[in-house]
Design goal:
It is built from 10 helices and 17 strands. It is of the alpha+beta class. It has a single domain, classed as Chorismate synthase, AroC fold (4-Layer Sandwich), CATH 3.60.150.10. The strands form 6 sheets. It has a 5-stranded antiparallel sheet. Strands 1-2-6-3 form a 4-stranded antiparallel sheet, covered by helices on one side. A two-stranded antiparallel ribbon has the order 4-5. About 40% of the residues are buried. It binds ligand EPS. The site of ligand EPS has 13 residues, from helix 2.
Length: about 375
């Protein structure tokens, strides 16, 4: 329904994304994409590159006069860092003078070199880098615009950074997103924010890195996206795969996730009520995260992802092997972020929005935005 493909290396000339399946007539501006890309650069703990690199973007297909044509949309994101890398990353025949052969534990370096037959880790790390998520976020900006026409908002916030965790159960609403983005760690709980900032400062001082947990919330998601009929149509499975595909993610929970496993059945589910005022079914809780039987229930969608600390350390201490000499050593040093958890929340929104847009297109179809919205509205009305 909605397909997308990214290309490009972290220090190459540009990243490119092609998004196919977006209905015609969707208003979209370069500013919409630029705004999401700017959000992805947010966050205390990111490295210097985030300060000096601009995401220079251009539509190279699929958009005319501020709206989509129904044809594949292509966005190019130029790396303003490229001039410094022209020789090192040149596509012309040649060789590097600085091959990297002390692979970082926790990164794609070693296994990538083994699998693809390279002896320079740069041949792997350039594509494994989370810079690639800029291209996903450009696609996600388009998915979010589409979803906004059927009343869906996807937002995120940070629940934990290292051992500092949010102490309240407060969840931001779409109208709170500016407040979340204004927090240096994208945390909605002001009391925990200070502890998170302190954790990043301490890690930076130690030359170390930090992971964390982020939560994605989907508001206004229609009932019945995904399906119970087959394993690869289950929306919770699709969301888990999409979130886990983000670089450095090691765990995903839908709703209360692992905590549900510790409760008896009588306390583990979202009970069903009828609301006379709105003539709709109501749930008193979000334990299942807005999914049941592989379908969205129409309630708040809740998904969390756990990110491991970045594998590149400013003070490399992790043991590795020099692949040329087989001597025990420490991994090579690359410029890096202390943490990218606040930015990863924006990438996680993107991935969930892309899954929801894909499933909404599968359910409602439509070659034009008008048709898509009409089909959605008729279905929602039919639910009574
Ligand atoms: C990254 C390392 C850093 C990050 C980069 C991802 O890049 P550099 O080594 O060039 O400073 O800044 O992230 C981005 C450029 C981005 O846009 O997110 C890594 O090793 O994955």
């Amino acid at each position: 329904m909605l397909r997308y493909l990214t290309a490009g290396e972290s220090h190459g000339p540009a990243l490119v994304v092609i998004v196919e399946g977006v209905p015609a007539g969707l208003p979209i501006l370069l500013e919409d994409v630029a705004g999401e890309l700017a959000r992805r650069r947010l966050g205390f703990g990111r490295g210097p590159r985030m300060r000096f690199e601009q995401d220079e973007i251009e539509f190279v297909g699929g958009v005319r006069h501020g709206r989509t044509l129904g044809s594949p949309i292509s966005v190019i994101i130029r790396n303003t860092e490229w001039p410094k890398w022209v020789d090192e990353m040149s596509p012309a025949p040649g060789a590097t003078e600085k091959p990297l052969h002390r692979p970082r534990p926790g990164h794609a370096d070693l296994v990538g070199m083994q699998k693809y037959g390279f002896d320079d880790a740069r041949d792997i790390l350039e594509r494994a880098s989370a810079r690639e998520t800029a291209a996903r976020v450009a696609a996600g900006a388009i998915a979010k615009r589409l979803l906004s026409h059927v009343g869906v908002d996807v937002i995120s916030h940070v629940l934990a950074l290292g051992s500092a965790r949010a102490t309240t159960d407060l969840r931001p609403k779409p109208s709170d997103l500016e407040t979340v983005d204004a927090s240096p760690v994208r945390c909605f709980d002001p009391e925990s924010e200070a502890a998170m900032i302190a954790a990043v400062e301490a890690a930076a001082k130690a030359g170390d890195s930090l992971g964390g947990v982020l939560e994605v919330l989907g508001y206004g998601v229609p009932t019945g996206l995904g399906s119970h009929v087959h394993w690869d149509r289950r929306i919770d499975g699709l969301i888990a795969q999409a979130l886990m595909s983000i670089q450095a993610m090691k765990g995903v929970e839908i709703g209360d996730g692992f905590d549900v496993a510790r409760r008896p059945g009588s306390e583990a589910h979202d009970e069903i009520f009828w609301d006379d005022d709105t003539s709709a079914y109501l749930r008193g809780s979000t334990r299942a995260g807005g999914t049941e039987g592989g379908m969205t229930t129409g309630d708040l969608l809740v998904a969390r992802a756990a990110m491991k600390p970045l594998a590149t350390l400013n003070r490399p201490v992790l043991q590795t092997v020099d692949m040329e000499t087989k001597e025990q050593t420490v991994s090579f040093k690359e410029r890096t972020d202390v943490t990218a958890v606040p930015a990863a929340g924006v990438v996680a929104e993107t991935m969930v929005a892309l899954v929801l847009a894909d499933e909404a297109l599968r359910k409602f179809g439509g070659d034009s935005l008008t048709e898509f919205v009409r089909n959605h509205d008729a279905y929602v009305a039919s639910l009574g």
